[in-house]
Amino acid sequence: MFYTLYILKSLVADRFYVGHTNNLLRRIDEHNSGQTKSTKPYKPWEVVFTIEITSKSEAYNIERFIKSKKSKIFIKKLIKGEIKL
């Protein structure tokens, strides 16, 4: 099974959301329909970055690594391809 690490950008605020899932379309729908508490106030969201990963634990670890940076600059560079994971 593959997992998708994804980054969403809010269309109404200067916010990003980093997550991982085994069903990207379902997960985006959950974010944009307000089912996710942390993203509900900033919807709608668009996908700005994805990578496919073969293990759930690796996807989780990469997600935690990105979130640990606590930096929009880091995320923007990652999206532009200036930083490789």
Written description of the protein model:
- The chain has helices spanning 24-32, 56-69, 72-80; strands at 3-10, 16-21, 45-53.
- With 85 residues, the protein is of the alpha+beta class.
- A three-stranded antiparallel beta sheet has the order 2-1-3, with helices on both faces.
Key terms for this structure?
three-stranded antiparallel β-sheet; 85 residues; 3 helices; alpha+beta; 38% helix; globular
Compact description:
It is built from 3 helices and 3 strands, in the order E-E-H-E-H-H.
Topology:
Elements: E1 3-10, E2 16-21, H1 24-32, E3 45-53, H2 56-69, H3 72-80
Order of helices and strands: EEHEHH
Helical proportion, percent range: 25-40%
| Low-confidence residue ranges | none
The tally of helices reads 3
Alpha carbon gap, first and last residue: 20 Å
Strand content: 25-35%
Structural class: alpha+beta
Radius of gyration: 12 Å
In order across it, which strands form the biggest sheet? 2-1-3
How would you describe the shape? globular
The overall strand count is 3
Main beta-sheet strand count, sense and barrel state: 3 strands, antiparallel
